[in-house]
Amino acid sequence: MDKAAILVLGGYGSAGSVITRLLLAKTAVKHVIIAGRRAQKAQELSQSLAAEFGEERVSPLGVDADDEAGLRQALAQVDLVIVCLAYRDDQAEIMLRAVLDSGIHYIDLTPDAQKQQLFTSRADELAARSCIVLTEAGIIPGCPSVLIRLAAREFDRVTVVTLASLYRDRDMAMDGARDLITHARQQPAAVYEQGRWQQTSLRALRRIDFGDRFGRQLGAPVFLDELHALPERYQIESLYLYQGSLNPVADGVLLLWRLLAFLPTDQLVSPMARLLAWSIRRFTRPPFGIMQRITAQGIKNGRSQQVTITLMQADMYRATAIPVVVAARQILDGVITEPGPQFMGHAVQPQPFITEMERLGIKVKVNHE
């Protein structure tokens, strides 16, 4: 990794700026390019980090995600691009062509079903160019699959897996609110039971114990694309994912958005995202931070047992950034070798991944019963 160069598109944003700093502070990466359409913001952050880490290790670049010529020129200088923004219009196609042209590796953070389908449709071309493409990286999505893979090793047969996630951040950026709004519409709530994924009502709430910090909270069933193949792959009989409350008002905004599913989406995404961001800023109360927990039950050597793995971080954006940086290291250090598109949580080596996340600041707690 000490000879690698990385471009972080959206590298001055809430998550991108933390990713950039962690790459410089905690890895031996040779050079990081902070890129985005707001050249002044990229310049300001670059100057600040250059004073701390050296001018030879960081530089700014003004480039937009729909500027294909600019992207091709930028990606020709690096080994890996990390995309910290949500694509609009045909930006995903433009980025895909630029990655194929340059033959570099790729990581993105934002769940997007259309982008995933696009990248999957070009899997053979990406593999032929030896491009490792990790999608939906971060704490959630991203880490639920890692936790399932880690927990599954503890059993001969896995009977029930329950994942629960809760995040509280009063300063959620507009991009984060937009991601929540988009995902709420794209992914209906679903659970895995009786050998198949089944849509379930948001009324199927469950009270979840989020530990001493957050206490017991109502969790709503949700679904992530990264989970779809895992029950069959690891012979899991039942799998559930619950999302804890943001705050009562923000929860109401998301519920309203789901109830308005019959209305046109495009015109409403921005106003609903603004409403959600306002409700989070106005009504979210301490404690802040993020928590993710898996409780897996199964059979080992003929006996029932249970394992619980908990991830915690006080800062939501650092929690998002750390898995991305660890995944980047696994690519550039040759730990991940399979080319083509895959979910981050499916590609990383689970135990080294969790160990490195803990070193970078995510608290990890494992209990066996």
What is this structure, in a nutshell?
The chain is α/β, with parallel strands linked by helices and 369 residues long. It has helices spanning 14-26, 39-53, 68-75, 91-102, 113-121, 123-128, 143-152, 174-186, 211-214, 230-233, 248-259, 266-283, 316-332, 344-347, 350-360; strands at 5-9, 31-36, 58-62, 80-83, 105-108, 132-135, 157-168, 190-193, 196-199, 206-209, 216-221, 236-244, 289-300, 303-313, 340-343, 363-368.
Main features:
alpha/beta, Rossmann fold, globular, seven-stranded parallel sheet, about 40% helix, seven-stranded mixed sheet
What does this structure look like?
- With 369 residues, this protein is an alpha/beta fold.
- It has 2 domains: 5-138 and 317-363, 3-Layer(aba) Sandwich (Rossmann fold); 143-316, Dihydrodipicolinate Reductase, domain 2 (2-Layer Sandwich).
- 42% of the residues lie in helices and 27% in strands.
- The protein is built from 15 helices and 16 strands.
- The chain has a 7-stranded parallel β-sheet, sandwiched between helices.
- Helix 4 (91-102) links the parallel strand 4 and strand 5.
- Helix 8 (174-186) crosses helix 12 (266-283).
- The two termini are 39 Å apart.
- 3D shape: globular
CATH topology of the largest domain: Rossmann fold
For the termini, the CA-CA separation is 39 Å
What's the number of domains?
2
| Strand numbers in spatial order across the main sheet | 3-2-1-4-5-6-15
Q: Say which CATH homologous superfamily of the largest domain is assigned.
A: NAD(P)-binding Rossmann-like Domain
Architecture of the largest domain, according to CATH? 3-Layer(aba) Sandwich
Strand content: 25-35%
Helical stretch tally: 15
Secondary-structure content class: alpha/beta
Please provide the count of β strands: 16
Helix content: 40-55%
> Which CATH class of the largest domain applies here?
Alpha Beta
Low-confidence stretches: none
The biggest sheet, with number of strands, parallel, antiparallel or mixed sense and barrel status, is:
7 strands, parallel
- Overall radius of gyration: 20 Å
For the residues shown, what is the average pLDDT? 92
